[in-house]
Write a structure and sequence with these properties.
57 residues, mainly alpha, 0% strand
């Protein structure tokens, strides 16, 4: 009985740790996606500005 309780307690701790890690990792992935999109949009805007500038001059 004691072994089963210890195993259940160990599994609960591992599950909680995994849940925290997954939550943190998901946040990191979302921030990386947002950062990548913002850099892509910014790069596109700069490219458009350069093309416009070259056509005007």
């Amino acid at each position: 009985m004691r072994v089963l309780y210890s195993l259940r307690e160990w599994a609960a701790k591992k599950a909680a740790r995994f849940k925290r890690m997954a939550k943190r990792h998901r946040r990191d992935v979302q921030s990386q996606i947002i950062r990548g999109v913002s850099y892509g949009v910014g790069s596109g805007a700069v490219s458009l500005l350069v093309v416009w500038w070259e056509n005007r001059h």
